[in-house]
Amino acid sequence: MHHEVEKVGDEIIIIRLKGELDHHSTQEIRDEIVPMIKNGTIKVLVWNLKDLNFMDSSGIGLILGRMRELAPIDGQTIIVNPSETMRKIFQFAGLSPYICSDSEIDIMSKLGGIVYGQ
Amino acid sequence: MDNEITLSFIAKSENEALARMVMSSFIAAIDPTIEELSEFKTVISEAVTNAIVHGYEEDGTGKIEIHARREDREIVVSIVDYGRGIRDVNQAREPLFTTKPDEERSGMGFTIMESFSDDVEIYSIPNRGTTVTITKRFVPIQETSRIV
């Protein structure tokens, strides 16, 4: 698992997951992202799953956990590029509304308007 | 019976990937679709993770066995642990039910296993262990259309 975490400005984090996401590999990602959120300025988490080959319900736990942390500040969660199987898993967990069909670049330009335009 | 294997390993989280890999290889002979393979791997991952996290509380010493057999295009897999067992199997099957919300377990494991397979049976005795038996039937390979 060689994921990439990119902070864009003070408010956005893009997490590009790679390889396989299971109970074993979630811990490492959680340890990296949680301190960044706790920092207080983050308002948007973008999960890009383009290079993720596998995800089980541990991925749901990881994403839901971060959504809970963002809830007090009305933070936003965006999921892009899930596989067909991942799409079904998100649906079971009620996370379908957070899947976005735009590309990462389109999302960033839209967010630029939302986040910085306030 | 077309084929049969038994896999035994220590209940460590790094073995979740190993279990998925071995079981993917086991079903390669029936040439599953990408979707079927991906769903099957998810089912295995959920059952093995349950055994590690709940059966053995991640003690890193318990043993997990996977017995798999293939008959034509039907795969029957049993994931066996000798851990603490499930006190209320019906409750465990309920979507979003989890005994470990603090560890960010989503409570979706059995829901995913049931949705991505044809049958899930749970046999559990408290403090003796749990056996989860999953049956998945794979669709027949489509005959390629004849070029006229």
TrEMBL record, chain A:
Superkingdom of origin: Bacteria
Q: Example GO molecular function term?
A: anti-sigma factor antagonist activity
Q: Which NCBIfam families match?
A: ant_ant_sig
What is this protein's name? Anti-sigma factor antagonist
The UniProt family comment states: Belongs to the anti-sigma-factor antagonist family.
- Species in which this protein is naturally found: Psychrobacillus insolitus
Q: Which InterPro entries match?
A: Anti-sigma_ant, STAS_dom, STAS_dom_sf
All copies of the STAS domain together span 2-95
Automatic annotation (TrEMBL), chain B:
Q: Which Pfam families match?
A: HATPase_c_2
Please give the superkingdom of this protein's source: Bacteria
Keyword set, alphabetical order: ATP-binding, Kinase, Nucleotide-binding, Serine/threonine-protein kinase, Sporulation, Transferase
> Which processes are annotated in GO (biological process)?
asexual sporulation; negative regulation of sporulation resulting in formation of a cellular spore; sporulation resulting in formation of a cellular spore
Q: Does the keyword Electron transport apply?
A: no
What is the uppermost EC class here?
transferase
E.C. numbers: 2.7.11.1
Recorded catalytic reaction(s): these are: L-threonyl-[protein] + ATP = O-phospho-L-threonyl-[protein] + ADP + H(+); L-seryl-[protein] + ATP = O-phospho-L-seryl-[protein] + ADP + H(+)
> What InterPro entries has UniProt attached to this entry?
Anti-sigma-factor_SerPK, Anti-sigma_F, HATPase_C_sf, HATPase_dom
Query: Where is each Histidine kinase/HSP90-like ATPase domain found?
Result: 35-140
GO MF terms listed in the record are: ATP binding; protein serine kinase activity; protein serine/threonine kinase activity; sigma factor antagonist activity
- Keyword Ligase included in the entry's annotation: no
> Gene3D superfamilies from the entry?
Histidine kinase-like ATPase, C-terminal domain
Q: Which PANTHER family match?
A: ANTI-SIGMA-F FACTOR RSBW, ANTI-SIGMA-F FACTOR RSBW-RELATED
State the family named in the UniProt similarity comment for this chain.
Answer: Belongs to the anti-sigma-factor family.
Give the function comment from the record. Binds to sigma F and blocks its ability to form an RNA polymerase holoenzyme (E-sigma F). Phosphorylates SpoIIAA on a serine residue. This phosphorylation may enable SpoIIAA to act as an anti-anti-sigma factor that counteracts SpoIIAB and thus releases sigma F from inhibition.
Q: What is this protein called?
A: Anti-sigma F factor
Source organism (scientific name)? Psychrobacillus insolitus
